TrEMBL record:
It is found in: Cytoplasm. Heterotetramer of two alpha and two beta chains. The record marks 175-176 as: Cleavage. This is Arginine biosynthesis bifunctional protein ArgJ. Signal peptide: none annotated. Substrate binds at residues 143, 165, 176, 262, 383, 388. It catalyses: N(2)-acetyl-L-ornithine + L-glutamate = N-acetyl-L-glutamate + L-ornithine; L-glutamate + acetyl-CoA = N-acetyl-L-glutamate + CoA + H(+). It comes from Weissella cibaria. The gene is argJ. Its EC number is 2.3.1.35, 2.3.1.1. Pathway: Amino-acid biosynthesis; L-arginine biosynthesis; L-ornithine and N-acetyl-L-glutamate from L-glutamate and N(2)-acetyl-L-ornithine (cyclic): step 1/1; Amino-acid biosynthesis; L-arginine biosynthesis; N(2)-acetyl-L-ornithine from L-glutamate: step 1/4. It comes from the Bacteria.
Amino acid sequence: MTFSWPKNFYSDGIHGQLRRNPTKPDLGWLVSTKPARVAGVFTRNTFPAAPVQIDQQVLRSNQPVHAIFVNSANANAFTGATGLANAYETQKLVANKLHTTPAEVLVVSTGIIGEQLPMEKIRRGIERLQASAPLNLAKAMLTTDTTTKTAQVTQADYQISGVAKGSGMIHPNMGTMLGFIATDVTIKQGLLQQLLRELVDVTFNQITIDGDTSTNDTVLVLANGDDWQAEIKAGTAKYEAFKADLHQVLKTLAIAIASDGEGATRLIDVHIMGARHSASAQRVAKSIVGSNLVKTAVFGADPNWGRIIDAIGNVGEVFEADQLSIAINQVPIIVAGNAVANEGAATQAMQQDTIVITVDLGLGTEQGQAWGSDLTYEYVHINAAYHT
């Protein structure tokens, strides 16, 4: 399926000379031609970047918006009063271009921390933004990513489309992780915000690459439908269907980020079953996928199940050893607390591009899932050479 935006949305991505490579876009926008309700979830880092601070102000106003502007190559983070002023100016420049007000524009940045935005390049670039192929925006967001990340669900009466970026500094607690989702449904802003928070907890917040939460993590959803006779309301079948579709878009983008971890060669997909509580299942899943010992074992194709046991034990909850079962790509490793002599089969299973670790805690009926990537020599090389 060719990626596209829902009705009354368009986007662009251009090379604004923030990057040295002239073939890589570094400025972009997503524009709604109609007023759009907005929901957002942001980093919990103690030092949120200037654009994060502005976007949080926009959301607190509970007013519709018309655009998201993004630049890569510069995070505009830890840049003080000058950085905040530059973000406000960017917001105003985009508003002037679109003949709207600054309060209807969201601004997002990603890249180097601690450097001021090159405002002359930003000004010239905004003047050039128009409408172009949807993937140009997805390209303009990238930093160390190796590929664009998109997701889309199309139904008879609505569409949900999203783009994301993220490869390193990823340990969202909604790092540099960005996600922009657009839909043409009609839904009230408060309900959209509630839904986004709920779904982010089981998608973006369940991925980890390196344990670092960025200063700029941002996920935004715009909904510009205006048919209030067809409004999506909580507790209805239509709400449940839309929730499932939005979940699918967010999950697809989250897995794409996990798959594209810096230097990654394998995706790690952890499934937890038999937990007492869903929150417990989520914590166990993320502990496993976030363990550097598990990550390096996956890189080395080593079915060292002791590292998985260690990660489960580090959650700090009470588990029963004789109830625990573990499998790697459907090859049993531990069954009811006892090791199974499957080392050859497990080693073979570890050769695959996706490593699915299934854990049954044997304590209840709740489930959880998390995603990450292996930890490789290339990860160290990328981050040793990446100027911050």
